[in-house]
Specification:
CATH superfamily: Alpha/Beta hydrolase fold, catalytic domain
Strand order of the largest sheet: 1-3-2-4-5-6-7
Number of helices: 7
CATH class: Alpha Beta
Shape: globular
CATH architecture: 3-Layer(aba) Sandwich
Distance between the termini: 30 Å
Number of strands: 7
Number of domains: 1
Length: 228
């Protein structure tokens, strides 16, 4: 999808960046905000997720949805009910991945991360653009589709490390969808870790941040040596 207009509402959405510039970075993290959130808000996670002790030089990039909402209805509504916004959002992520790759950073050094709507988008993008990524961090989100719909995707995730973290019960994301997402990503070859937080509110907890930082530390260990 290209251009702007009613058929591609997110095509010209801006991107906020922190950390190291793409041309000097050893890896990149794409952060996707939730419904009603903003790029600036989700980008604050870089301050607590960045590995310490002389860790990798990472570029942190956060696109902002048009109207601060990636798609209008629940991620468990029929997909057609969220079009053209859903396809536009996935296209916007793909355009950003392309920019990162053009800077010399391959998918194997790109992490996709998001909260709520953003976690759903990150999960769906990775499943529908299968490759070996540096990782997926889904703070309360899963694959997109109505209950009982076919969540199967094609491709091989080649051992991509995946974190699926969520409270239970959650007002927007049932734990059953986290389990379905884990099963499908495992079938696609990802290395999946799920963690359930009983009674946790719809937010990102300190433990989840620690889990995410650990994934980044492992994913980018020795990154400087691999920089092209």
């Amino acid at each position: 999808m290209s251009g702007t207009g009613p058929g591609d509402p997110h095509a010209s959405s801006f991107v906020v960046q922190a950390g190291t510039s793409l041309d000097e970075a050893e890896g990149a993290v794409i952060l996707l905000h939730g419904r009603g959130g903003s790029a600036a808000e989700i980008l604050q996670l870089n301050e607590v997720m960045q590995p310490g002790n002389g860790g990798p030089k990472l570029a942190w990039l956060a696109p902002e949805a048009a109207g601060k909402t990636w798609y209008p209805n629940s991620f468990m509504a029929p997909r057609a009910a969220n079009e053209p916004y859903l396809s536009s959002a996935l296209g916007r992520i793909n355009a950003l991945v392309t920019v990162i790759e053009q800077a010399g950073i391959p998918p194997g050094r790109i992490v996709l991360a998001g909260f709520s709507q953003g976690a759903c988008l990150a999960s769906e993008y990775m499943a529908s653009h299968a490759a070996r990524y540096a990782g997926l961090i889904a703070f309360t989100g899963g694959l997109i589709g109505a209950p009982g719909s076919d969540l199967t995707h094609r491709g091989d995730l080649q051992g991509t490390p995946v974190l699926l973290l969520s409270g239970d019960p959650d007002p927007h994301v049932p734990w059953s969808r986290i389990e379905e997402t884990a099963a499908e990503l495992k079938r696609m070859g990802a290395s999946v870790t799920t963690k359930r937080y009983p009674g946790r509110a719809h937010t990102v907890s300190r433990d989840e941040v620690a889990q995410a930082r650990g994934l980044l530390e492992r994913a980018f260990a020795g990154a400087a040596a691999r920089r092209a």
